[in-house]
Design brief:
mainly alpha; 66% helix
């Protein structure tokens, strides 16, 4: 373990890494239930999508752990799966086989971009203060997701969002879990987030939030995935290019944002602002997308919920390997993992948001050409519900402010290219 993951160099141990991996899995296991539900709306069989989701997550996360030695888990991305089902298939009228083809080709392009260091160059082009802001923005975003999952924050037609009903069982369970997990953290209990998730799940039983169906059994054999269901007859059309480009764009910048945010929180970024083994990390993401498409699921990407494992002490690829093993177990014990309600994982996500705020103290607030882009990055991530859009508007504002105030020399060539790419994306 020491030779493979360099545990001592990262000031961690096997027990901490395994607990962190379990925590990461518990906070993102919802994808095993949500992804089949979304893609089945596009006409795909839910059982097959469940199997594809678990297998693609296992493959990509295992590669991230063994090849990149980073504590980051991957799975089919939220938002990208909704775009796949509701925009491409139901909105544009394309069959899901063609949408899978777009995902597959996007993954191939990703592999080439990773091999030729194009994505690595993009990461290096992101200014230091925006990198710090990414961690904070993801923290706010992930906390917002937790509040939503718990029903504490709900839709409000007058004000966009509002406070949920404090008498609702789901809200009460989440708030109890939040206090309980907070107490565990205050007493510096190892694995506090995981203990909080398990305890909150049990607390949810008498509240009717944790539902145990009649005849429930923890064991179920998985359905076969949808192997190589591709359709290449319309890949040269303009509509297909727009679909392909959107998948490519969102995946690039969701992945970059997550890698920067989580590794910043974990203290893994070096003095030059570089992520260790970033090429291997990006390649793991790209291979996961290709494997996912071949198995029958939407784009695989790095998950911001990985921050929960980092908050629990995860620092190496052993955390990711642990998470990947649990995705494998989920294939046989899906009813057990799907028993955990959103209200039980919400406290962990909310508190992870707190953990990710620390880089804000290192942002240079005295220079408004640095502070404003950083602020926009932090603000736009939760409010647009997109890591990618937070990066887009943060970097564009950085370019405009530096150029207009006579600091154009501080903008690198790659940053200019990335900015032009962002503008093109919104024109399309």
């Amino acid at each position: 373990m020491e030779k493979l993951f360099q545990l001592k160099a990262h000031n961690t141990n096997v027990r901490t890494e395994i607990m962190a991996g379990i925590t990461t899995f518990m906070t993102m296991a919802y994808i095993l239930a949500v992804n089949p539900g979304i893609l089945s709306a596009a006409g795909m069989p839910a059982g097959a999508v469940f199997t594809a989701t678990a297998l693609a997550s296992l493959i990509a996360t295992l590669m991230m752990g063994l090849v990149a030695n980073l504590p980051i888990a991957l799975a089919p991305g939220m938002g990208l799966n909704a775009f796949f089902a509701f925009t491409v298939v139901l909105g544009m009228g394309y069959p899901w086989q063609l949408a899978l083809t777009a995902v597959f080709l996007e993954g191939i392009v990703f592999i080439l971009m990773s091999l030729f260091n194009i994505r690595e160059a993009i990461i290096k082009s992101i200014p230091a203060n925006i990198k710090r802001a990414v961690s904070v923005g993801i923290g706010l975003f992930i906390a917002f997701i937790g509040l939503q999952n718990a029903g504490i924050v709900v839709n409000n037609d007058a004000t966009l969002v509002g406070l949920g009903s404090m008498g609702d069982g789901k809200v009460l369970v989440a708030l109890i879990g939040l206090v309980l997990t907070g107490v565990l953290l205050a007493f510096k209990v190892k694995g506090a987030l995981l203990i909080g998730i398990v305890a909150t799940t049990l607390i949810g039983i008498p509240f009717g939030v944790t539902s145990i169906p009649k005849g429930w059994t923890p064991f179920k054999l998985p359905d076969a995935p949808l192997f190589f269901q591709f359709q290449f007859d319309k890949v040269l059309t303009l509509d297909f290019f727009i679909v392909f480009f959107t998948f490519l764009f969102v995946d690039i910048f969701d992945t970059i944002g997550t890698l920067v945010g989580v590794t910043t929180q974990a203290g893994l970024i070096n003095k030059n602002g570089e992520i260790p083994r970033v090429k291997q990390a990006l390649l793991s993401d790209a291979v996961g997308t290709v494997a996912g498409a071949a198995l029958g699921t939407s784009t695989v990407t790095s998950y911001i919920e990985s921050a929960s494992g980092v908050a629990d002490g995860g620092r190496t690829g052993l955390t990711a390997v642990t998470t990947s093993v649990l995705f494998g177990l989920a294939l046989l014990f899906s009813p057990l993992f799907l028993l955990v309600p959103g209200a039980a994982t919400a406290p962990a996500l909310i508190l992870v948001g707190l953990f990710m705020l620390s880089p804000v103290k290192d942002i240079d607030l005295s220079d408004f050409t640095e502070a404003i882009p950083a602020f926009i990055t932090m603000l736009f991530m939760p409010l647009t519900y997109s890591i990618a859009e937070g990066l887009v508007f943060g970097i564009l504002s950085y370019i405009f402010l530096k150029a207009i105030t006579g600091k154009i020399k501080e903008i690198s060539v790659v940053t200019w290219v990335v900015g032009a790419f962002f503008v093109l994306k919104h024109i399309l």
